Model the fold of this input.
Amino acid sequence: MDNIDVDDFFNLDLESIFEEGSWDDLNLSSSPPGGHVSNSNPSIPELTGIGSGRSADNASGVAPFSTTPLLSATPRPGGDINGPQLVSTSTCTSIYRSQDTGIKVIDQSQSTSSNVQQTIQKLLHEETVSKRLLSQCNNHRQVIEVSSFNGSPALYFKWENGITCKEWLDKVHQIHPQIVEFNVRLRAAMAISKTLSQFHQCSVTYNSLSPENIVLTPLEGDYVAKFIDLSDAVICNDEQTFKEMMAVDLTSLGLIFDQLFKAEGGGGEAYSAAAAAGGDNAGGLTNSRRVSIVSDGGEEEVSDHNRNVRKRGKQRAPGEGLPLYLGAMISALLNNGDDNDASQLRYKSANDVYEDLKAMVAHSSSHHQSSSLREADFDNDVTIHSRLKFPKDLFYGRQVQMSMILHLLQSSTMLGDQPMMALIAGYPGTGKSTLVNQVKKPLADKNGFFIEGKFDVSVRPDKVLASALDSFFASINASNAGQNTYMSMRWRINDAVGSGVSCLFDVIPSLRKFMTDSTEVDRTEGRNIGGNLMGQRLKYMFCKLIGAISCRSTPLVLVLDDLQWADKMTLGVIRMLMIDPDIHYFLFLGCYRENEVNESHMLSANLNDIREQGINFMTIKVGAIEKESVNALISDVLCLPPSLCRPLSTVVHQKTGGIIMFVRRLLISLNDEGLVWYSLSSHRWMFDLRKIEVKEMSEDVVKHMTEHMSRLPKKMQMGLKLCACLGPKFDTAIVEKVQRGANIGDNFLESCVDDGFLQIKGDSGFYTWAHDQVQQAAYELIPLQQREKFHLLIGSRLFLSTSSAEIDKFIFYIVDNMNRGVTLVDNPQQKYEMAELNLRAGEKILERHSFQSSVKYLMAGIALLENDSWEKKYGLTIRLHDAASEALCATGDFPKLTALAEKPLIYARCFQDKLNIYNNLVRALSSSGENEECISRCVSVLSQLGEFLPKHITPDIYREEVAKVKQALIGQSKQDLLSLPVMTKAKKLTAMRFLNHMLIATYSTNPPLNLLVVFRMVRMTVDFGVCNISAVGFACYGAWLASSPNDEYEGAFTMGRVASDLMKKLCGAEAEILPRIYLLVYGMINIFKEPWQASLCKYSEAFDAGMISGDTEYALSNITLYYMLSLFNCGSNLKETSQSLHKFVKRALQYQHQTAARTLAISEQMAYDLMGLKKNCYEAHFGLDEEALKNFFVRNKLANMSRNLYQKIKYVTYMCGDMDAAAKHYDLQEKLNANCSVQATTGRTSFFFISTFIDGLIGLYFARKHREDEAKWTHVAEKAIELMKKWTDSSSWNCANKSYLLQAEYFFLKNDERAYACYRASITKAREHKFNHEEGLAHEKLATYLLYKNQHDEALQHFQNAKKCYATWGANVLVQRVEKAITILSPLCVGSI
Done:
């Protein structure tokens, strides 16, 4: 090989071999017509006939090329100029070539008459076979005709260019086998098997297949194999004969493959052994090619040791041996064992071989050099212990479902305009989790994040989402939290939640480490927030946190598995995530068991809520995999070609139904029972199909796994039982404690991991079950009647072996197991001990805000109490009831809370011990809408605290209370009030808390009492000092002053400043009460003093603060005022505002705040009406039209909602010119006000200004009609003018333009010339103060006045100005109405054409 550059030749493929000059250095160039190949390299034996179309007739002894023809050749048309050239000769035939035509001539002079006749028959037979093949196969030597050549019988055929397989193999072995890549050989093998398959499809068997009769030709990166010399081919018309002859061809194919992939030169071992054996086995192979097949049980009797050595030598590496997959294929092709031997694998057709080779190419390309198809060596578990090894990711047969998920991933990461969602539904063990895990790689390619959590029937569901987020941040902290990506995430989280992130630190400890380097946080902020608010706060903070993680550069996929066990809070978070307008580049994937979720399930109800809110999501069904997918899985696991696995996969699919986890467990079971084993002699996996077919097994996967586990050693079974009782996750320490006294072996956990029962989570030391079904199967090992005893034993053993210092670490393992065996405990002292442990667990989890779980432990503790516990264990009993009432209030389980409160309110030893129960009870009553009962309870508690409130409030009582509060405030400046001492008396602090509860309950049901509550809060503050609730009291008092008949705007403004400053002083900038203070100060006080536009940002700030603190009621109330002020008062663009409005209506519905949702929907509908859109948002959100909604409010006595709706209709109808409808709704509103004085006594919002303004304009319109009701409407107008003047004196910015317009319209009524100047002043003020919509209205009203004065040109100009203002506002209806006026007026103007 001195002349061979191995480095250059290493990457040669077969196609390059055929390129011109590629083989020149190897002395393998094709022979020229009529010449022979010279041999310049003495180390390489001379080759003849390269590129020829010779038949195999001369294969046993090829004569050197000769330039002297045996016969005088006469050229055929199209032949060479010099005539046909002799290529080769044999005993009775000669081969000539004339360009593209070959001629096989019978040499009659060298043959007897009988031999010539036989040869002629062969020529005719070859012609017949060729014609038979032409219909479906072109990859053979095509016969043109049987004729004569110079008087001798001859067969004319199409010359095939290329190189014979034998010549190629010989040269490859002489050079170096590793030079030619494995894939080159593989593609050559594919070409050969494909051609043989085509022969068989034509019912033709070749019968003498050998490397000399195969010509290989490169074609577009692949190879074509053409078979030459069809003289021994057989056309089979009998099925049995065809089957036998195909077996001969398949055996020959195996021999060729063995040579093709053999590392050493001179042919493969199996071929050598077969040749040495000699003899006939199928009748059709001539000479030494008719061989006996060698198998483990056949003629070649060798020891297992010798055979193993030989096979191992063949399979070490692709260059030195055969890959396991390919070795099994060749073994099956050469297999001539007993058909009754169920462990033998054999091929039935060449097409199966071809398909398996194709699968090998595809698999090898996708898995590169690590593919099991390319690897020859297995670890000791396989070779010695015969133990199956499964891929980590059993992903088979889910291409359709995967494409759907990838489409969603692409949409969410590329568009990112809104969150996307998909649910994966299927039965247990169908591979839902595996399907979802396929997202990880494409997501990582997009620099995205993957957060996953899993619910479990035995684990607290309200900690799953927090644990998933905690694991996510822990992985970031462990990697490199200083990278730019993570720094950017810190900033986003800080911007989204600010210092409020501290409330997440208890539930997401890793977040504390992630964030503390970048932001200062308040460690105590949020600790004193009430349970219900804390629950709302956590949901909102989870949404904000997830929204901050996901962005364009780092999209996020959140996966929650086993949603059928999810808790209400987590489902609420999912619902919030999907409708949150601030979340982008986010995909949620949820998995659940389809067979465990029906229409009444909590998950179904939440999904229906999501649908009703207009969120579309995809449900992807995951069922059993198809038989072919099972076959692919088994092929990969056993490293056998798919065709050879098909008999086994058919049986496995039938027994498992295609449930992928069941398939895995069955294969493990078959392996353990010795029905699937690794053969050291044949160096491949084998199976006993017949025994597998008759094997009986359960149709239930859990039962089947339990049966399998029951055959394990007793030590192993005991360990599995113990671990099954510990839940889905546990560490080594807890297992060591549990196993004391129970011998489970030294390597139990490692064995469980090896057997696929458990998985270890990285370096954390924690173990999890491979699947919850595996845990269930292990649990089923415990007899049903012994389970309670088993749990109690485990819990007791843990408790007794745990020191007081580490009890908190193992408290949940202890309590969970003890509670499962509680019915076996009769001893009262033991019950009290268990109740104490439940209290400890409940309080611990309550601190982490897992309210649902805390309820479970606390209620379990209460159930353990004896009837005399109020006497014997009073402290334990009252603590359990206090904590349980707090948890129940947080979860919103008000009926259970009401029932729970009965006993402590009766048996508590002192009033002080009842206060916490009362506090939670009145909060529950208020939240559930039972305001009367809430008020009654509060009044009762306050009376016991020394604060008496009258049940019936007369005008005299009201005046007396007003006088008292004013007296208390005489001489108190703003600074004096802010300098008041802090309230310290416990009773007064408690009284302020219950007065605060009454504020909400009395606002709509008892306004006079509401005011007395406000007055009492102010007086108590002045008398006993300030607390955070004092700020609410001052703000409410200021709102009352602003709406009182005396219109004490300055006093109200002062009280508002006191409330704001006192809140900041006592509570800080992130105060829990901020939403309430801002609602009162900026919604009911400052609107009389400061520009309305300045309040918009305060409402937004209050909304965010309320959502962060969990005070969603006041948060949404602030956003309601924001949109009312924005649309009605400030004239914001209708289109832009309506788009965000729609999202906030959904958010209000999501939080089940119907009042806020309805109020926001009224504003949304107003925008649609003025824009001219035929949309009915009431129908979309509530399933009602406007008239039905109006009736609903009246029927349910919702006065405030009725007032808001009347004001909206009145406003829209007036602006659109429907004056009769406007007048009708004015009357309805006045009737409502006459029956309810809520608005007049408890505060006025900004909409009261607009309502009064529109009332005045309606009155002036009808007064100008001079009908019988002129006096009524004139009075309405004059009252509005008077109020507007007074408000203008307090806030000229907000009211001056409105006051001027009302005066202008009044002067118009009175035919006073001053009207023009007032119109102009109204236009100027509206423009200056950014009230674009009211500027347009003033222009329109002035144009109408000018028309009355016959000043058409100027009127036209003001109509045009009005159109511009309305267009800017987005009020298309008003634009169209003014356009009509312009169209009519234009011809009347001087400048018109």
